[in-house]
Amino acid sequence: MAVTFTTDQQKVIDLRDCNILVSAAAGSGKTAVLTERIVQRVCDAKNPVQIDRMLIVTFTNAAAAEMRERIGAALRKRLDEEPDNSHLRRQMTLLNNAQITTIDSFCLYLIRNHFHEIQLDPGFRIADEGEIRLLKQEILEEYLEDKYEEGKTEFLELIEKYAGTGSEEGLKEIILKIYAFSQSHPFPTDYLKDCMRTLKDESELPENLQHVLHEYEQSMLEECIALSNKAIELCKEPGGPYHYEEAFLDDLDFYARLKQASSYEERSGIYGSHKYKTLSRSKIEDLDEDIKNAVKDIRDKKCKKIIDEIRKRFYYGTLSEIMPDNYEAGKNLTGLIKLAMEFGNRFESEKRKKNIIDFSDMEHLALEILMKKTENGYEPGEVALGYRDFFQEIMVDEYQDSNQVQEYLLESISRQSDTEGNRFMVGDVKQSIYRFRLARPEIFMEKYAAFCEDTGKNRRVNLSCNFRSRKEVIESVNEVFKALMIPQVGKISYDKDACLYYGADYPETKCGNASEILLYEKDAFREQNISEAEAEAKIIAERIRELCRDFCVKDKITGELRKAKYSDIVILLRTAAGIDDVMKKVLETEGIPSYISSGKGYFAAPEICIMLNYIKVLNNPRQDIPLVGVLHSVLGGFSEEEIAKIRLFNRKKGRLYDSLTEYAQKGGNANLRCKAEAFIKHLEKWRKKSCFVSVYELLEEILQESGYLQHCMAMPGGTQRRANLLVLLQKAKSFEQGGYSGLFDFIRYIELMQEREIDFGEANVLDESADVVRIMTIHKSKGLEFPICFVAGFSKQFNIRESSEPVLTDADLGMGGDYIDLNLRCRRRSLRKNIIAVKQRNDGRGEDLRILYVAMTRAKEKLIMVGHGSKPEIMKDGATAYEILKAKSFMELVLPVAKVHSELFDIKEFTTGDLKFSKVTRLVEERVLREELQNTSGEQIWSSYVYPHASLDGLFTKTTVSELKKEAYLETEEACHELYEEKEIVPYIPQFIANQEGEAGGSRRGSAYHRIMELMDFTIALKKDKLNESILALRKGAVDALRIPASENELVSQAKVSKFMQTKLAKRMGEAQLRNQLHKEQPFMMAVKGNSVRPNFPEDEDVLIQGVIDVYFEESDGLVLLDYKTDSVSDSNELVKRYEAQLVYYAEALERLTHKKVKEKLIYSFALHEVISL
Q: CA-to-CA distance for 985 and 987, rounded, in angstroms?
């Protein structure tokens, strides 16, 4: 079906021969419009453009790939309609080489094709972020050491002023900050020199600083005037303190004089001479004390507070008194800038020596190729003029996130005719949220103000129709930002052009789509030692359950309503640190699968910790802590008791490794002695090899030969674990490409990254179709959309620490610092720094509002905000600049608006009682966590914790499927004792437990069978010959790799395993494994109603059930659930009696976990050689 575009969208598609700025609001279909414009330009019958003569710049590689695919699909469709069109066929050929790319990739293209213009070795390499950050630290440390040796007074004074207690870390941070700040400018060195010139001549306050101060002061005075007028109205009300009016009229005169004052000196004089008129003390009859107090509060707690803050920060003296401080602070800054410039020169020189570049270099080197310095400044060179002629149109997506370097670069290759233009820029300044990357939304805003809607070379088009969200979401977003997004804060006006207009087509529903604010009592939860993150996660979990039960969403494919599922839901966080993990744990405890999309946590991943410990031991085995970690891991296979025995074998030995080698020679326990000997043998083998192979090759061989990679894949979350290990291999390769080598240097490289808190983030392995709740930051969500969107941490305080840093940097105002007197040991802010701080506070709050806008506009059908809050001040006429700037969180901004527009917001309040938190539940979870940490071979299942309240006697908060199965069987048989050996769910029993058992009991034998089946490669069953030999080889390999003790392996009958592998069921499992649809040892936790476990339990109390599913696999028509049994029984009916209840719970958990139907529940009996269907 053909797409119908709106009038404004069609205008964007059709406009020609001019520069075009498209302000495309959230969900306005800009990608579809951009694609159609490109296709129509290429297919224009009168004036077609070759696709390779268009430069199309997007923000991410994924966006570029999507754009290329969309254009290709549209061209293929046209070619199907016109198969003989040679122009279209040529465009399809050119498409693969067309410049549809990110700005970084385009810069790299320029550098690779014109490296000779800047004398760059063509063999250069792009260094990764970790390598660059470490190189910066190394260069900076060397540089500061050289400066110490020089011993110049100027440098030593800077050290004393800025270094910090006991180290020069403070000074290092400032140098790196100034260097990074300079890199946001097209010509960094020139810019820093300009900064120093400005700081040198500060006898008067520069005009740009005066302008910022004046703007801020005017907005605050307007606030005081509005408040005073409101107070006068209250004075005139019945019972009001009318005798206070005279004082407020005097205040208004004071404010008016300040607004009219044209100079700093004049305003300073007014502030210095003004004395507030005292409120009348006359007694009047029928005075309403509440009104009187409200009026006094307006004057004393608001107006006077605003004026006092302005006076103290900006008018604490005359200019002649203040400017010497500014001058001295400027001298300090000049010294710091010189250090940053000298460091930058060394850093650039070292990169050239190593023949590497970083991402910042890409833009600056490309600009160096395109622009040349002349007498008139920087002008486009021959290369730029060549591209200016070649590219017929330059299109930039996400233009609001451009920086000054990118703007200079694209401007240099754009056509500059007075009558025509070839730039096409699309974005939404309300979604500019990359201030920390030094993005400049001002570039977009300046063009928006300068471009015309109807005529001229520079044209502006607004796309305001939202095709993403339901009307309820749009209305709530509009009301929030009409109140909050004002020009005085962030320079954006949320007017009729900025508002969203409903354009989607959603079917009617009675589910209730109003936006929600979920509030909880912070102090009440704190009293129960429940953190904010835990409380919010619990509230969200409760709401998710309700939504998946009762809420319907529009299906993306069919367009019909369907029940909501987990993958429809996202939880957005302003910052993820320390919160996302808590969210995930609580959700999983509640039986809700989730996935964290995070840039952190790589070095904390267990499989990475184990591998890093192993290579540390390879480098130096006499490190007790890494060695204990390795011994206790699957690579060692030693239990805590065994490690203790080894350590105590010879207490005189200084190191654990010495005790280990001695035990391997003389230890008393034969099995443990053999185990220690095998471990040392493997260790020595890899230590020798490390001397003559690369780190990459060493790690790769260890992972393959030890079977550790396969072991991790067989564990829960195996795909993620495998991906993390492959990232480690890649980092080892990158490390060696950087000119480094050797195990010691690689370990130091990793340790330095950990010290500097450089984290790769866990590898992203999430399947787009996975039915899980996504947890991500608001920044990561940009460009995405979700049917149901939670914004958590809504009450988290804004970060305003930036303004307290010793040096402030601003692209417009330069730098500001403190006046520091070493003799008096005092420090105070300079006027310059105070003005910059005000601007940054304003700019920062503007960014906060834009981040809020991005978060709220991700929602398609339901928007839910979660946090704590108190009674807000109602904002009937919208918020003032002062109210927006003083707010500490999103909640303080949004809740007052929601109270005014109660018809659009459903505000719900939660108490601790609503969420069923209890100390017992928390203690149980803590104990389970402790036990899991001690368990070396998988998830341990613990059961029958009893909820102790008398009214709920016997109600346990957590149990296992095994316990429930046992109860069901005993009730059926009316038995009073256990009739059979209970299999442990844990797939592998540590050796010391097995030794203590003596005879091989049913439990130990069952565990051995389960371990072998966990390690089994089921594709063996698909082979026509040598089945038995393949199974034997697999088992032997597992023993050699210490993945199962030999004594355990001996308990498993080869004949029984072989018979199973010959069944049709095993072949189905092999086929599923080839499709990556075979899942082993799947742990789960689900909540069920109490009365479904026992009739006497209350329905409104949940019981958590834990278990581990042996194996399940997917087929086209559903899931197959299988449980292995080794019980000695005479017929299959006995197994059905014993285990039917267990498999019912397994099936329910699996269906909840996957949202797929379990079509078969099977038991395989190794004793009967029989597949039993339930």
A: 6
pLDDT confidence tier of residue 1100, bands split at 50, 70 and 90 = low
In a domain, 509, yes or no: no
Task: Indicate whether 119 and 132 sit together in one domain.
Answer: no
Joined together, the tokens standing for residue 752 give: 């330095």
- 55 and 95 in one domain? yes
Q: Residues 1005, 1141: one domain?
A: yes
Q: 740, 755, 770: which is the final residue of a domain?
A: 755
Pairing type for strands 1158-1165 and 19-24 reads unpaired
- What are residue 502's DSSP bridge partners? 466
Q: Are residues 149 and 290 in the same domain?
A: no
Structure-token pair, residue 880: 């003032």
**CB neighbour list of residue 606: distance below 8 Å, 6 or more residues apart:** 721
Q: Using CB atoms within 10 A of its CB, is residue 929 exposed (0-12), middle (13-18) or buried (19+)?
A: exposed
Q: Is residue 772 part of a domain?
A: no
1007 and 1153 share a domain?
yes
Rounded to whole angstroms, how far apart are CA atoms 230 and 764?
Answer: 55
Amino acid at 215: E
Give the H/E segment covering residue 511: none
Residues 6+ apart with CB under 8 A from 393: 41, 49, 53, 54, 55, 422, 423, 424
Nearest by Cα to 427 from 441, 413, 407: 441
Phi first, then psi: what are they for 911, rounded to 5°?
Answer: -115, 170
DSSP 839-876: HHHHHHHHHHHHHHHHHHTTEEEEEEEEEE--PPPP-T
Q: Per-residue DSSP letters for 209-272? A: HHHHHHHHHHHHHHHHHHHHHHHHHHHHSTT--GGGHHHHHHHHHHHHHHHH--SHHHHHHHHH
For 985-1044, write each residue's pLDDT tens digit: 333 333 333 334 433 456 678 888 988 898 888 988 888 777 888 888 888 877 776 677
Tell whether 14 and 89 lie within a shared domain: yes
Which of 186, 195, 184, 177 is closest to 340 using CA atoms? 177
Residue 144: give the domain boundaries: 126-184+323-354
Cβ pair 1005, 1128 in contact under 8 A: no
From CA 1107, how far away is CA 960, in angstroms rounded? Answer: 6
In a domain, residue 1152? The reply is: yes
Same domain, 1007 and 1096: yes
User: Pick from 960, 956, 966: which is nearest to 1102 by CA?
Assistant: 956
CA 1036 to chain centre: 43
Q: How far apart are CA 944 and CA 865, in angstroms?
A: 37
pLDDT digits (tens, 9 = 90+) for 687-713: 888 888 888 889 998 888 888 888 888
Residue 1119 sits at φ, ψ, to 5 deg, of -100, 150
Choose the final residue of a domain: 685, 720, 755: 755
- Provide the number of structural domains found in the chain: 6
Q: Are residues 268 and 367 in the same domain?
A: no
